[in-house]
Amino acid sequence: MKSMEDISYVVSRMVFESYGVSGLYEACHAQMNHATRLMKYRVPEPDETDLGLTPHVDTNFITVLYQGQTNGLEVQKKTGEWVTAGLSPSSFVFMAGEGLMAWSNGRISASHHQVTMGKTGKTRYSFAVFTSIKWTETPEELVDEDHPLQYKAYDHDEYMRYISKTGLEKDPLSLKAFCGVN
Ligand SMILES: O=C(O)CCC(=O)C(=O)O
Ligand SMILES: [Fe+2]
Fold first, then answer.
1. ipTM beyond cut 0.90
2. Residue 126's domain is classified under what CATH number?
3. Rounded to whole angstroms, what are the CA distances from 48 to 2, 42, 43, 122?
4. For residue range 117-155, what is the model confidence (pLDDT) as tens digits?
5. pTM value?
6. Candidates 60, 63, 65, 127: which one to mutate for ligand 1, based on the most atoms within 8 Å of Cβ?
7. Do 106 and 150 touch, CB atoms closer than 8 A?
8. Which atom of ligand 1 is nearest to the CA of 63?
9. How far apart are CA 123 and CA 145, in angstroms?
10. Domain residues for 166?
11. How many domains does the chain have?
């Protein structure tokens, strides 16, 4: 678990560096907190859908996921097509959540993903570290005439309260509705 948190630190730092704002990383790191979840997906009955988890974007900043021996994670491409994240059993997936999308001023899209059980006939386990930051604010370095601000700065807890109240949890446009700049 500790090493999965480390992956989220290392890759986020790389993202900050790649956008030329590595000086802002420490302050972001200081407000990161992590929630872990172990998920178990049972084998669907013959008359059940094999959709293990419905399509969604993660509402947090970034997610690091380990899906062990049983593939099933699918990510939607911009074209709308779903692709299997076919990974070796020793791989970890780093996924952008809505927080990173807002932070990057829309340069990084939040990953729209789902879990399909397929026909393996095996119970699936996955383990995720969901990293969130309390206050998400787009660096001014990432805003200019060609890239006008897309999301106002927001408090993650307030956003959580908003989506539980509105029931917009699975809606990939809920952050836009909450703090999008029109
Ligand atoms: O189990 C998985 O592979 C994905 C889990 C997931 O997307 C989530 O819990 O948000
Ligand atoms: Fe997810």
1. yes
2. 2.60.120.330
3. 36, 11, 10, 15
4. 987 788 999 999 999 999 999 999 999 999 999 999 999
5. 0.94
6. 65
7. yes
8. 10
9. 50
10. 1-179
11. 1
